[in-house]
# Entry
Amino acid sequence: MVRWTKAVVAVAAAALLAACGTDPATTPASAGDTGHGDKNVATGGTLFATADTETAKLKADVGPGVFPRTVTQAMGQTRIEKKPERVIVLDSGELDDVLALGVTPVGMATTAGQQGVPSYLADRVQNIATVGPTNTLDLEKIASLKPDLILGSKLRVNDLYPQLSAIAPTVFSIRPGFPWKENFLLVGAALGAEEQATKLLNDYQTKANQVKAKLTGAPTISLVRFMSGNIRLYGKKSFIGVILADVGLPRPANQNVDELAVEISKENIDQSAGDWIFYSSYGSAVSPDQKAVTEGPIWRNMSAVKGGHAIAVDDEVWFLGLGPIGAMRVLDDLGNFLG
# Structure
């Protein structure tokens, strides 16, 4: 490992300042991608659609639990000499992943728009050091925690990989979101916990099958998220879209697309129709836009709403969970709502 000196800190800090900037997303559907991420893997990027299949190729060169190991990851290959004990995570997906594997990180990044971390994980990370928001990481703080593994993604912090990998072995996925299962297996590979990760995903699919078995028919599921100034209808290439597919739940035609989301205006909220509508607001319990729409005549006259099948859900679980703990919570909700 390269020794982290004051000179390196200064160079890295300068690189961080240069990398920070405006959101690279060209459409609101890419909100959340940071100024030093890889635009090619963002929504609409040339490498977005294949992120799951490409991530599935990333793995270790030795069997479960064996160290040293070399992990092939999104930025190349990373040598990990011994089982990591001081892990830093740079997004909520990696946080969910390591906690699911029984690893409490020594440091974590917070995510813009959240109050620190997703609320469903908050009680597990009360005493964990924070290393800044994902888009303005404190590299000196990261170094001071003396990590032996850093977990992140190209989407969030691609440009900072040289600085991060100079601090500790660093393993990047391609992007969070719809490749959440492949990302979890990659985290398992970095920790030498492949068997545990595989078992947890098998447990997840067993539970998804149980939810499916209790369904009456195959109701279409509409996913609505109120953003700042627009409304997203989530597609198949999303965390929640993958979960619905695993349960075998069909989608309305305009959401049955290989995209993260499509966008509609408040005036076109009737385009969110489905047998069931699950909705939330990004960044707050109830946004002004959500309140205006759900109290309006178009929403109130939709069949799902009149039938009691429009349900407000926890945004931090359904849309920001990005890992197996969050996914299991979504399955619990689906079982309760639809069973």
Summary: Residues 194-213 form the longest helix (20 residues). The longest strand covers residues 221-226. The domain at 213-338 is CATH 3.40.50.1980 (Rossmann fold). The two ends are 52 Å apart (CA to CA).
